[in-house]
């Protein structure tokens, strides 16, 4: 299937306005804060500015205050938002909230959408997605899920241990994956629950120090101990949680790629400006062959990543199989973005290592992307497995 490499007219205009808003409004805030924002008041101020600029919530349906873009058109807007570490936060399309909005739109009841999706879409609250557990629990292998939920009068009791839950600090609610049937290692038997902040059975026990710091709310370790929720806290159907996780994770991998590609372009712009003005050995740095190679390799990685993202988005929009293309896009983009930022820092030399530009911060932020949403090794395993199965199926005909 041919993939259109240009945005629709609505998305093109929104991408232009987003680019202008991010450069004029968000980048100065990012540079003043070293790329890390921790104040909820500042988050709300940025989001109010994005709303006033008409670029807020590009991914959410219009009935919830968004622009309702499909995946392909989101690619162009999210990439412009990602030109700053704080751009996605300003547009309310940052992880984990963006992925949670997507899933709530897809599977929540009308009442749940009003209670959880609407305030999340408008920026009135934040959320987290609590699936990952300490070893030997759920991680890259979600089927290892150990957190349990059992029926009690009027609802469910959740007990378990979660860690590396992004955005948990200050979140208004959590979407919690718990096992309602089967045993760890079995492919089915998970259910998603909506748990409000303030539930005495859900507690943050530790804020985890990490290489990256720009994801709002950080990463937390959580304990669920006699966490009782009502029947209407079930999101979707009982025992269908793993299927719903796939509804969330494929698009979330693609949107992560979009946002980080924006940072790769930003790093390239910083490096090219430096190379164009820095003079040494009798010429501009940009006229020296080794610097030119790094600049060219950056452009190649950026272009290839953009194309793979659009292919994955086309597959997602069609509603057919998309696991293969999203795994390919995620693996390539995570590594390509790292290469681009690393080369850009190298081109800038001591300036790149210094705090005078944010390349060092970018490098710390993009490195974990090779682990988040499935490490590159896991994706390569699934990609290879699909290829072998496809050949086996062809040979069996």
Automatic annotation (TrEMBL):
Cofactor(s) demanded: FAD
Domain Acyl-CoA dehydrogenase/oxidase C-terminal: 239-387
Source organism: Yinghuangia aomiensis
Family the UniProt entry places it in: Belongs to the acyl-CoA dehydrogenase family.
UniProt-listed InterPro entries: Acyl-CoA_dehydrogenase, Acyl-CoA_Oxase/DH_mid-dom, Acyl-CoA_Oxase/DH_mid-dom_sf, AcylCo_DH-like_C, AcylCo_DH/oxidase_C, AcylCoA_DH/ox_N, AcylCoA_DH/ox_N_sf, AcylCoA_DH/oxidase_NM_dom_sf
Domain Acyl-CoA dehydrogenase/oxidase N-terminal: 13-123
Key words of the record: FAD, Flavoprotein, Oxidoreductase
Residues in Acyl-CoA oxidase/dehydrogenase middle domain copies: 128-227
PANTHER family: ACYL-COA DEHYDROGENASE FAMILY MEMBER 11, MEDIUM-CHAIN SPECIFIC ACYL-COA DEHYDROGENASE, MITOCHONDRIAL-RELATED
Pfam families: Acyl-CoA_dh_1 (PF00441), Acyl-CoA_dh_M (PF02770), Acyl-CoA_dh_N (PF02771)
Descriptive protein name: Acyl-CoA dehydrogenase family protein
Domain of life from the UniProt record: Bacteria
Subunit annotation: Homodimer.
